[in-house]
Design a protein that fits this description.
By secondary structure, the chain is mainly beta. The chain has one domain: Double-stranded beta-helix, CATH 3.60.160. The strands form three sheets. Strands 3, 5, 6, 8, 9, 10, 11, 12, 14 and 18 form a ten-stranded antiparallel β-sheet that branches. Strands 1-2-7-4 form a four-stranded antiparallel β-sheet, with no helix packed on it. Strands 13, 15, 16 and 17 form a four-stranded antiparallel β-sheet that branches. It is about 10% helix and about 45% strand. A hairpin with a 6-residue loop joins strand 1 and strand 2. This is TIGR00266 family protein. InterPro entries: AIM24, AIM24_sf, Trp_RNA-bd_attenuator-like_dom.
Length: about 240
């Protein structure tokens, strides 16, 4: 069965368990295709098919690989009306953004799902310092259709007027509109810590909208490493004292 385009005002969906542990329930028409972040699948109904790289249909889709040349997304289609449930890896929220012949930028960690009408690509060459976690990269989503992004923690929306500036730690950026100008700078002792030990801050300039999250994966990782090291030493010290 070949793929077909499904045109409607908005993809039928429901976001449940907001805001702390949100999940996305999507309804697929026969032959409709969605692409989701690899590993985000929770469940799907009978008749839904996971499309592999060997399927003829997958060759017609925009296929993105991560920096290690692994498939970044998984495609789903349905042989009859069905449902797919997705969830992001971190606790937090999900939001729906309807693109109308426009562009949206998002770190790959924020990506959850898109309609197949959306073209998305990896911006490996542009602002490579934007992301602070290994394996993370900047995505460009463009076209007309539904996109779904997720936040780690609470989601906030910042609307910028023309020439209005705003600075965000790169680890707290969820997405921003294509019309927003941005640049990244390194600052010692502030922002998400990069491999060089500097902080990464993103300077935005309006007009446009920015979405931010209250938690940072990089900060969580740094906290775990710091406490694991400290906890191990402390436990060892207590163990020696007890002998």
């Amino acid at each position: 069965m070949g793929l077909r385009a499904v045109f409607r005002a908005s993809m039928e969906h429901e976001i449940t368990n907001q805001p702390g542990f949100a999940q996305l329930d999507m309804t697929l028409d026969t032959g409709e295709v969605i692409r989701a972040e690899a590993g985000s699948l929770v469940s799907y109904s009978e008749g839904v098919k996971i499309m592999g790289s060997g399927d003829d249909e997958i060759k017609s889709l925009n296929y993105v690989l991560d920096e290690n040349h692994r498939p970044f997304s998984t495609a789903f289609t349905s042989q009859r009306p069905g449902t797919v449930t997705l969830a992001p890896p971190f606790p937090g929220d999900i939001f729906h953004f309807k693109l109308r012949d426009e562009t949206l930028y998002a770190p790959s960690r924020s990506f959850l799902a898109v309609e197949d009408a959306i073209v998305f690509d990896a911006e490996f060459s542009r602002e490579e310092t934007f992301v602070e976690c290994e394996g993370d990269f900047l995505l460009t989503l463009s076209g007309t259709g539904s996109s779904f992004l997720s936040s780690y923690g609470a989601l906030s929306v910042v609307s910028l007027n023309p020439e209005e500036g705003y600075v965000v730690d790169t680890g707290h950026v969820v997405a921003f509109e294509g019309g927003v100008d941005f640049s990244v700078r390194r600052v010692s002792g502030a922002g998400s810590i990069s491999e060089s030990g500097d902080g990464l801050l993103c300077e935005f300039e309006g007009p446009g909208t920015i979405w931010t999250q209250s938690r940072s994966p990089a900060s969580l990782l740094a906290w775990m490493v710091r406490n694991q090291s400290g906890g191990g030493s402390e436990t060892g010290a207590k163990g020696e004292s007890a002998k």
